[in-house]
Amino acid sequence: MPLTSGNVTSPPRLLEEYFDREDSRIEERLRDLRQIRNLLGRLTESTSSTSTPGVEPISDEMAPTVVQRLIHESSGILRNLVMVVDAGPALDDTTMRDNQQWIAEGNVQRTIYPAHSLDTPQGLQWLRSWSTVGEEQRLLPEIASEYAVFGDVGAVALRQWGDVSSGYVLIRDPLLISTLAAYFDLAWEHAHAVPYAASVPGDERLVELLGMGLKDEAIARFLGVGLRTVRRRVAALMSIHGVDTRFQLGVALAATSAASPAASVGGRHTR
Q: For residues 102, 108, 262 and 246, what is the CA-based torsion angle, rounded to 10 degrees?
């Protein structure tokens, strides 16, 4: 029986139930991701040979041309998993123009970036520039490998899983394409939407950024304020909630969010 006061569940029990639900969801997500990652590992091991049907190594010089061709051939969703934003065929000027035009024509491009992309002005600018042209973006604390899936017509991936220096392969094998897409979709479901300062006023945006584990410097760039301002606002939130550490602040905010389902503080906004 839940501890109640009248018909209202007590705050401690409510918080306990909230964390129990979150722990269960996290375990399920991790289990699913491990299963798919293991499958991908087995499949990508077979790509090390140049004779593997449906998998063709491509040079760094040819990668932009291959990406351009796939963009023009594809329809549906372009799924893009990114480990770094300062290298790869996407930096080619012609490829970038074709890709942006493809999005402008109404096609859907979803990209998952690592959270550390926000730690530099260059990374933040990259995300903002692609968001402006309509790219749907989310963040994960870490990205296991890098690839792009162009609808169901093909994919370009790292030749060795997780090794950005290993070169690229063009994948035409339907099973591997669908598996890469499934891994991406599962990761997308559990990733954080990229929060931009203009979308939510007040401390709600600050709280969301804190919940994503971003550094104060990255938060300051997002909000367009000084580092000292961010730290003052965090200190003010800690004072309001009567806590001494950021971890305690997170627990207090989670309790507030659980008690007020309509609140968006600290929540993950989905598209």
A: -80
